[in-house]
Specification:
Layout: H1 30-39, H2 43-65, H3 68-85, H4 95-118, H5 135-145, H6 149-160, H7 165-172, H8 176-198
Length: 199
C-alpha cells in the first residue's frame, strides 16, 4: 500500500497557524459547498477541498503514470491548476468531473515529457522502484498500465474513480460512445492479459 504524502498547499491557501481544517464526511453537496466557499476566497475551504480530493487525484495519476514519484508530482500540479481555475468553473456541481479533466491533461503532459526524456536518458540509469503489491493487484496494475492511454484513462475514470459514462466523457472531452468503446476494449484487453498471466 502506497503511503501518500500530503499536498503541499501554497502559503496563501494554508489554514491559519494553530487552526485545523476538518473535511468531515464527503456528503453529497459538501464538495459543492466547499467550491462555493473557495470561490469567495475562503482559504480554509480551499485546504479542505484539496484534502478531500487529493487521494482520488493521486489514484488517478498513479494509474495513468505508473510511478509513485510522477503521480505525486502530477497530483501537486492538479491541485495548483484546480486552485487557479476553480473561479472560472461555471457550475460548482461539475467540480469533480472538471477536476478529473484537469488531472487527465496533467497526466497526458507528463507522459509526453517522459517520452521526450526517455530518449535522452543515460545508459545504466536505474528506474524508480515501484512498491511491491500483492500478486493479483500487481497483475491488474500491470494490465491497466499496458493499455493504450485513451483506454487506460477511460477505465480508470469509470471504475477506479466511479465516474458515470457521462462524467467520464466530459472529463475526457469526448462523446459517450467513445468512452463506452474505450472501456469495452480496455476491459476486454485486461481480461485477456490477466488470463494469459495465469497460464
Amino acid at each position: 500500500m502506497t503511503v501518500l504524502r500530503p499536498i503541499c498547499l501554497p502559503v496563501s491557501f494554508s489554514a491559519p497557524r494553530g487552526e485545523t481544517v476538518g473535511v468531515g464526511s464527503a456528503e453529497p453537496g459538501s464538495v459543492v459547498a466547499l467550491v462555493g466557499r473557495v470561490r469567495t476566497g475562503d482559504r480554509q475551504a480551499a485546504a479542505a477541498l484539496l484534502r478531500l480530493m487529493q487521494d482520488r487525484w493521486y489514484r488517478y495519476c498513479l494509474a495513468q503514470l505508473r510511478r509513485p514519484d510522477e503521480a505525486d508530482d502530477a497530483t501537486q500540479e492538479v491541485a495548483l491548476r484546480v486552485l487557479r481555475g476553480v473561479g472560472r468553473l461555471r457550475e460548482a456541481g461539475r467540480f469533480e468531473t472538471w477536476s478529473f479533466g484537469v488531472a487527465l491533461n496533467v497526466c497526458r503532459e507528463a507522459r509526453r515529457r517522459a517520452i521526450r526524456h526517455r530518449s535522452s536518458e543515460l545508459e545504466g540509469h536505474e528506474p524508480t522502484h515501484t512498491p511491491e503489491l500483492p500478486e493479483d493487484h500487481a497483475r491488474l496494475h500491470a494490465a491497466l498500465g499496458d493499455l493504450p492511454p485513451r483506454q487506460r484513462e477511460a477505465v480508470t475514470l469509470r471504475y477506479l474513480e466511479g465516474l458515470t459514462i457521462e462524467q467520464t466523457a466530459e472529463a475526457m472531452r469526448c462523446r459517450q460512445g467513445t468512452v463506452k468503446a474505450a472501456v469495452h476494449k480496455g476491459l476486454k484487453s485486461m481480461r485477456r492479459m490477466m488470463a494469459e498471466g495465469e497460464g
